[in-house]
Amino acid sequence: MEDERQSVHIAVLAGGVASAYVACETVKKYGKENTRLIFIDTFSKSAEGPVYEANSRFMKDVAEYIGLPLIEINDAENDSINIEFSNEDESNSALRYEVEVKLKQLLAYLEEVRENEKLEPILYFGSVPEEMYRNKKICLESIEKDFGNVSDLQLFFEVAPSKAIETHYPLVEAKNKDLDVKDIIQNEWRIELPRSERKRVYIAMFSGGAGSAYVAYYMVQAFGKENCKLFFTNTLWEDEDNLRFMDEVAEYIGLEITEILDGRTPEEVFYDYKFLGNSRLAKCSEELKVRQTLIFLEELRDNEKLEPVLYFGIAPHEKHRRDDSHVRRKSSLVREDSPDANIRKAAGIRSFYEHFPIEPIESRFPLVETLRADLDAKGIIQFEWGIKLPRMYTAAVEKAEKENDPIAKKLVKKGINGFSHANCGGRCVRGGFQHYATLYSIWPDQYKEQEEMEERFRKHFEKNVSILKKNGGAYTLKQFREEMERDGVEKYLFTPDETIPCVCSFS
Ligand code: SF4
Prior knowledge:
CATH class of the largest domain: Alpha Beta
CATH topology of the largest domain: Rossmann fold
Strand content: 5-15%
Oligomer: single chain
Bound molecules: iron/sulfur cluster
Mean pLDDT: 85
């Protein structure tokens, strides 16, 4: 007789803290012998972001703590299963496709339980009441929130199985909405939280460029000042007007800059490594920017238990039309095979932060992925915020206007208003011939400083090395200057460098 069937209580673990807590409570109430733990990993195949990767590890820790095996519902072959509801009205369910696929796989398991074991399954979900999101007991981006709301789940288990399955939502039904499940799991169970449940901190990689300034503003509007940081790594070669610009932007946004300093200049790094940075290898970038950034991010995780999400101001070179942005965003616009060099650079940065930190760090590129393609960050900053752009962007225009300089005028006429990237005061060792020809024409003093730096290094180490290379060999800034003085600078001014700005211009 079906009515006399014994029940089996099945806690559905979704990867987050709420379902972990519910599973533990279910076992306490009904005993291990009458309870099962099922893990529905809806992200194992579909996740593009690294944030979900650690959730299956967390589920294993939870099962071990509870002392029951973890039954994984992950039928890869059936990932593209056809969803057919008995009621064909689509509006009946707002569950995400991946969730529907996995629930359908769960149903197959439950039908077997009924058929073969003659047991009646009762399901327990970690759905969370809105109050718990509002009072910050559960992270807003929790996996459990993604999993679907109570009425959608209820409906699914009423209409999809051969016979309706009873479902429960203990946290929604509970009276104590202040229950701090994260705290219990962290401090009583002593299990490290899954990354999707750690508190996020949104970090604008603030470089002194207009793109990163706008992205910082956008990020703060989306997540609130209290959850954001403006992060800046100072190489001590920065142009003073960049610092002015950054201070004004920070004040406009209303958030202080978190400045990290290695303490060495790029030149000092070259001496430490006995290697002069050039367009192929720039230890200065690795040491002063990348390394400092990674240390800072790991410390945020270790000391403050925060999960960083990085925001970069990289914009596409070309203006792509993105009328279908909501669709294309899913398939990711940041691709290593993009024809656009800046987008390839973004893909490289994303891959770097997925592989080099101890755990992957999520990176976002709103100017590529989400914001309107025709957004004019420079115009907004100048005319809406009333902040003058860093002089490096407009150095040619200023020289043309103030000094009536003929070369600067030609540059402006060709649409070159200043330097293409605003790091290290125009002295970037990754710059090529066009970059240094522009520096020589617009800011000869900075060119001279760099030439002297190169000469000092060569003399000190008695090595025939240089920042620029010609015919596969050394070609010093002194030689280059002499050539420009002899043959004119224009030959180099309008031939774009093949080198693309280093990662420093975006970090
Ligand atoms: S901007 Fe250029 S010179 Fe400055 S740290 Fe980066 S690679 Fe080195």
